[in-house]
Amino acid sequence: MPSDEYHRGFTCAGGAYVLQVAFDRAALPVRCRRSGRTSVRAPPGFLGDLMLNAHGTAHIVEPEIRPGHVGVTWDRE
Q1: N or C: which end of the chain has fewer CB within 10 A?
Q2: What's the confidence (pLDDT) of residue 45?
Q3: How far apart are CA 66 and CA 70, in angstroms?
């Protein structure tokens, strides 16, 4: 089953975090969003739309990570 999200969990505050998600150029998503959640069981909160670059990748930068989950979600249709 194809995935529609990627999240990374952090248990304590820390420094910067950068996430890059690369998509197959033949199957680019129609929408890509930055998301976060306070725990793995919490539903994601959408924090803004992301644009894909010319290489079919999306990036997020979190300058000061906090406890919880940060990631990217996408829609294929």
Answers
A1: N
A2: 85
A3: 9
